[in-house]
Amino acid sequence: MMRKRGSRRLATLIAALIGVGLIIGVSGARVAREPIGYVGVVRNGGPLDSRTIRQVLMPGQKLTWIGLFSESPHNYPASNVNRTYSVTSDPKRGSRPGVDVVTVPTKDGVQVGIEATVFMRFVGERNLDVLKRFDVSYGTRRFPTANGTRRLYPWQGDDGFNTWLDNLFRPVLDYNLRREIGRFECAQLVASCSLVSSGRASINAAARAPRVADAGAIADRISATLNRDLTRTIGQPYLWNIRMRIARVSLPKGVQDAVDETQAKYVAVNEARAELKQATYQTRRNRILGQAYNESPALANIDAIKALPKQATVILSTNGKAPAVLATPGNGLNTGSNTDSNTGK
Fold first, then answer.
1. What pLDDT score does 200 carry?
2. What is the CATH number assigned to the segment(s) 82-251?
């Protein structure tokens, strides 16, 4: 095959490409492109270079020269991308990065669970100086995952960034949740809690229950305090536009079971009240109806005929007299003088 000129040219081209690749690999020449939604921090990596930050790649940046022997970009979320952090009271849902299992006490000592989502944005390309400080201070450290099996850098994908949130953001979030929820009684957060709260277990407990707190207002206050406290805690505004939305507040299983049992009892009491009221009205009806029958025997006869079963023929005799009415009911009745004036039949 090598005797053909075309084959020799193709082999030469392939060898040249391989040679260029080897030269680039040995020389340490580096190029990189940045995916959309991420910003990349590039550090020097040459044998004679310091490990300082060389440049920052913007989200979606095209193929770019990043120097000789430079490290691969440390990819962090861009500032225009919303990140979420979940808060749950279910331990089965909390064994993942970026998910916090939270139960906090209320003012009256009831341990309640919180189901919520925190929305936030990372500084990214919004402030390159702050981004570089993050890469220097936290981007050089590895943090343990929720299950403790691995240690990740914040720039190692979504799991790495969520692991950083678990270690730095979660304690501040828990503190603010505990402080805010502790300002309210259980019945203000969960209305049904008034059924089993001390001194409230009565039929009219719901009417005397305290006003239910505004979940939106609670979330707004927590969001505002998170923005302030987090900056003070970690030193820089690495996270911004933090917004919490509370889905629901749940009671512990024992308390929820007591609430369900109490509500079932209230249903039974209300049902008994309805039956008592019904019996009272029926008694009054029977009394009035009896008086009407006493005053009008004919009305009593008419209602008696109406009450006859279907397919029955009854000859009615009243006051010891000869039968005067022949009733043959179906869906109605036949009344008339079907008796002979002499025989009474």
1. 46
2. 3.30.479.30
